[in-house]
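Q: what does this look like with FE2/S2 (inorganic) cluster bound?
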Amino acid sequence: MTESLDTEPTSTIRLTVNGTLHVLEVPDRKLLSDVLRQDLELTGTHVGCEHGVCGACTVQLDGEPVRSCLMFAGSAQGHEVTTVEGIGDDPEHPADVQQAFIDCHGLQCGFCTPGFITTIDAYIDENPHPSEEEAREAVSGNLCRCTGYQNIVSAVQRAAELRAEGASQ
Ligand code: FES
Ligand code: FES
């Protein structure tokens, strides 16, 4: 028998997203990706495969990239969630990783881009001077159907340059 959503158990969860605490009543099995998009209207987090394969839904949990389609929202309680909007949401003043994608023409349709941005933002903190090979490895878990990846790899290195410049100012 299929349980309807109406009878699904729910819980009150406290979720900190992009620095803001939200208190939400959600079904216990509702995914973090769905809560971000549907409850918080943070639709920058994209959902592609829903199986942990494509990386489009990547957000940061305490600064580490995670697949939000593989987590229940309740599991994110007590952690800091950062979505692509938390990295940068001002088109006039893009964040360094976003600027790198602009500089390197690292996107076409843009569907995959938020997952790359959140992944690379965390990566260049860990490795501020990635080689081309390291940059390629850093994005190897994210799929893009449009670009052929080379410009995304360039964007990883460009983002690292921009972050280093920002840190030295
Ligand atoms: S939608 Fe989560 S990894 Fe593809
Ligand atoms: S830019 Fe279209 S999927 Fe990557």
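The chain has a mean pLDDT of 95. The pocket of FE2/S2 (inorganic) cluster (ligand 1) is lined by residues 47-50, 52-57, 67, 69 (CB under 6 Å).
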